[in-house]
Amino acid sequence: MLEPQRMIQDLIDLRTLTANEDGGQRVAWTPVWLKARQWFKDHLAELPVTVEQDPAGNLWATLPGESDVSLVMGSHLDCVPGGGWLDGCLGVIAGLAVLRRFAATGTKPPITIKVVDWADEEGARFGRSLLGSAAFAGNHSVEADRGRTDREGIRLEDAMRACGVDINRFPEAEKWRKNVGAYLELHIEQGPVLEQMNLPLGVVTGTKGVERHGITFFGQAAHSGATPMGLRHDALAACAKLSLEIYNIAGKHKDAVCTMGSVKTFPGIVTAVVGRCEATLDQRDLDPGNLAQMYSEAQAASKQFATEHGCTVEWAPIWTIEPIPFDPALLDFCEEAVFDASGTRHRLPSGPLHDAAEVARAGIPTVMIFTQSLRGISHNKIEDTRHEHLAQGVIALDKLADKTVAWLLAKG
Amino acid sequence: MLEPQRMIQDLIDLRTLTANEDGGQRVAWTPVWLKARQWFKDHLAELPVTVEQDPAGNLWATLPGESDVSLVMGSHLDCVPGGGWLDGCLGVIAGLAVLRRFAATGTKPPITIKVVDWADEEGARFGRSLLGSAAFAGNHSVEADRGRTDREGIRLEDAMRACGVDINRFPEAEKWRKNVGAYLELHIEQGPVLEQMNLPLGVVTGTKGVERHGITFFGQAAHSGATPMGLRHDALAACAKLSLEIYNIAGKHKDAVCTMGSVKTFPGIVTAVVGRCEATLDQRDLDPGNLAQMYSEAQAASKQFATEHGCTVEWAPIWTIEPIPFDPALLDFCEEAVFDASGTRHRLPSGPLHDAAEVARAGIPTVMIFTQSLRGISHNKIEDTRHEHLAQGVIALDKLADKTVAWLLAKG
């Protein structure tokens, strides 16, 4: 029997163990994170599973089945400093609940069932997110990452070694992909869409691609009192037009988003027209064509606005990732499972990235379920989901697991 | 005989003495500033004038006339760090040139002629501009100013004492207003208006009033990937609309200017919708009614834009000064003098404040002449005016001085 209430109690227990008054403190490669993992291992010890850490620091629990082909469920126990109780933990503890249900039958499942706790999804301390799942997927970047330092100057390589992980062995984590037939992840939405639609759960169609750029407008600093409006080269005005135009650019596509998250003005004093304005632009969509169009339109608009204000503009790439759609067959099973658990069905893309994106990039059939996120707030101690929605989430994951097992068996 | 070329050579000599490769270094209450003043005193020593420092540190040269009523010309020798060779110096050295011409006749002028070098016009080191002229005008703020500190933590009071000025005696500087009949100041425009109109000189109608405020838009920080465009409370978008609307607000009035010089975004990261946006707004016009209207319209617009983006907005005053119109009779004389010297006539208000504004506030008939400012650039080592325009400027000041003397005599 699946025990949704026990799962919720597990989440509460883990929060009690690893949060303080500022929120969750399970930052990867820290003592509190190791404490969370030990708590997880203590619970796994009650089950007939083997527990291993792969060379990238990912923690695996394996319930052997009749076949070596495996179904993997999971997410990450790490969180940002001051994070919530669900972002990451939910997928791991829900996986534990489903694992318990399989183990409770007393007979070997037809295929192998695994739960994984990916290492350092957030990248909160060293700035490299999806660290463990990327290594699993063959997308590690060891040479770029080993020298990353935290605020105290501690190197990632050394922080990992203190947790028993040797960054030089990262490439070996790829071997853990062997026989993995499918990957399922339950996660809190981290956005307001499901709450606005009054839906408990959502079927995640994939993770949006991201075009992330720095944009600098160059004008001419000038005395605020002595420079007539018509003779200004106001870099802020050009940038302001772009910050508004991105609403039109994103608005052409159903789920697209464009965000100007940072604006800096130079010289940035009350008595000077802005001579230089530095901004960031983050654009996301699940469709590669839409994403390319949005990027192109933003560039063209920036040039037009620069010209209108006697400025020039330069773009510099910050980071880019392609859209990663999830598996069509698993999406159908997931929609059935969500409907069975909640009586609702809704598909939506994920704006944030997840470990599931790395797993999917490696060619493993993957799908995710979102639970509603109250107020859409994430990476904050007030992050929350109603208990009834958490229960529906793990029930949907459980049903999805059964459907996926049957599918993998049928594939042979 | 007036000697315009000698005035230009004086300006060049003073630059050589007090600038380095970064520009002028005549920051008030520093050794370089004292060096500039000593250079000025050395030149005054060749004339039949008395040289005195008033209790606010203003330096006065007096050529006694038949009447105790005085005509004062002047400006300031101090500059911002890395400043140009004309902002301030021009009005003092041009005054010196006219003083020489009066002295060269060998007979007492009909009224007393004075040249003043106001102390600390720029406020570059301690953040209090118009320090000496404000004390003269009875607008000192000793208690607020004495504790001001520079970047090294040195107090204004102590820096002044090291230059022989006791801040406690500031109120006594008001006595120096006695018998002052008029004040004339030649200054570089510091803006692009005269250059755009191809005019060497301008008649300054007064200094614009200033409404200077801090504006904060409060929205909701949210994940850039997970938050649909329609569900955002984007504080940057609201602020961006205001940064553009100020062009419409200022555009209703001929010489009005509005400037958003600083924008700060919080949390200010590429992956978050801006939850809080802090901006500054500086509004200026010579007409008090226009200024009040612009301030009111900007407030109303900010509230509308905040509402449009699900935000709130708060305003906090930074600094305010009323418009200060110059004397109508002197404006007419000034226009005649400028026409006689250059064959052109154009009236314009000053956006930047000047010592002349403090003098005018004290009820003394005042007017200013601007010289063209190449590229409109100021507070920068590349600040410049063509030599022929400098010569026309001092010729105009000289003619204006004669007209003003005649006017003061006629007033009796």
Summarize the structure.
The structure is a homodimer of 412-residue chains. By secondary structure, chain A is an alpha+beta fold.
Overall radius of gyration of chain A: 23 Å
For the largest beta-sheet of chain A, the strand count, sense and barrel status come to:
9 strands, mixed
Instruction: Please name the two chains that share the biggest interface, counting residues whose Cβ lies under 8 Å from a Cβ on the partner chain.
Output: A-B, 61 and 61 residues
Q: What series of H and E elements makes up the topology of chain A?
A: HEEHEEEHEHHHEHEEEHEEEEHEEHEHEH
Mean pLDDT of chain A: 96
Low-confidence stretches of chain A: none
Describe the structure.
2 copies of one chain form a homodimer. The longest helix of chain A has 25 residues, at 387-411. In chain A, strands 3, 4, 5, 6, 7, 8, 16, 17 and 18 form a 9-stranded mixed beta sheet that branches. In chain A, strands 9, 11, 12, 14 and 15 form a 5-stranded antiparallel beta sheet that branches. The two termini of chain A are 27 Å apart. Chain A folds into 2 domains: 4-207 and 323-411, Zn peptidases (Aminopeptidase, 3-Layer(aba) Sandwich); 209-321, Alpha-Beta Plaits (2-Layer Sandwich). By secondary structure, the first copy, chain A, is of the alpha+beta class. In chain A, strand 5, helix 3 and strand 6 (111-117) form a beta-alpha-beta unit. Chain A is elongated, with a radius of gyration of 23 Å. The mean pLDDT of chain A is 96. Chain A has helices spanning 4-18, 31-44, 89-104, 131-136, 142-145, 156-161, 193-196, 235-251, 288-308, 328-342, 355-361, 387-411, and strands at residues 19-20, 23-24, 50-53, 59-63, 67-75, 111-117, 180-188, 201-207, 209-218, 222-223, 257-259, 263-266, 272-273, 276-285, 312-321, 324-325, 347-350, 366-371. The interface between A and B is large, with 61 and 61 residues.
